[in-house]
Specification:
Number of helices: 8
Structural class: alpha/beta
Radius of gyration: 15 Å
Largest sheet: 6 strands, parallel
Order of helices and strands: HEHEHEHHEEEHEHEH
Shape: globular
Distance between the termini: 47 Å
Helix content: 25-40%
Strand content: 15-25%
Strand order of the largest sheet: 2-1-3-4-8-7
Oligomer: single chain
Bound molecules: thiamine diphosphate
């Protein structure tokens, strides 16, 4: 199993595009606050994308709720390291509930980039995939490089989860800028998931 220290430093937008290119079955994607959702936005608008605004650490809890409500649909949460560090307890909840259709992707740049690049715990000692495994997420892995990320993503979209894919990424800023219209984001997502008409 790849160690965090043996992973290539990749690029969030490149990885996001690689992931989105694989989505052909109406998979739901929840982008976390800031750069993860900026790059999700820039990777192409999809009605099944939800862009979290405002609060850190909510991509996985929202994705978990969607995954439980719609077990036939694959649901992906994209989160930064700073945000997931605020919500480590969710790993234990996911491990307990075992949603087979949930995929968590952690984009780890080792900083709270959007608020000034203060170092996070992952820049020091904390290994997010190891924390997840310790919480009971047995299918949690570091992507060694882009090819490995592609293979892990393909598996996570096809086999029984829950899965966690962690990637060390560079500190390039997010590419897009999500429209800040929460009601529209919510309504479009609900229509995209077939739970709201009109
Ligand atoms: C609960 C909460 N605390 C603090 C903030 C302020 N804040 C917004 S984004 C951010 C940093 C996010 O870091 P990370 O998830 O690692 O993403 P990055 O900016 O590195 O892409 C902070 C501290 C917030 N929005 N919500």
């Amino acid at each position: 199993m790849t160690d965090a220290r043996n992973t290539k430093v990749m690029n969030r937008f490149d990885l996001t595009r690689r992931l989105v290119a694989r989505l052909t079955n109406g998979e739901a994607v929840i982008g976390g606050i800031g750069n993860t959702n900026f790059d999700l936005w820039a990777a192409g608008r999809r009605p099944q994308n939800f862009y979290m605004l405002g609060s850190m650490g909510l991509a996985v809890p929202i994705a978990l709720g969607v995954a439980l409500a719609q077990p036939q649909r694959r649901v992906i949460a994209l989160e930064g390291d700073g945000s997931i560090l605020m919500q480590l307890g969710v790993f234990a909840t996911v491990a307990t509930l075992v949603p087979r259709n949930l995929v968590i992707v952690v984009m780890d740049n080792g900083v709270y980039q959007i608020t000034g690049s203060q170092l996070t715990a992952t820049a020091h000692k904390t290994d997010i995939a190891a924390v997840a495994r310790g919480a009971g997420l047995t299918q949690a892995a570091w992507a060694a490089d882009e090819d490995d990320f592609d293979q892990l993503a393909a598996r996570a979209l096809a086999e029984d989860g829950p899965f966690l894919i962690a990637a060390k990424i560079d500190r390039n800023p997010g590419v897009g800028a999500t429209d800040r219209d929460p009601a529209q984001i919510r309504d479009r997502f609900m229509r995209g998931l077939g739970v709201k008409d009109g």
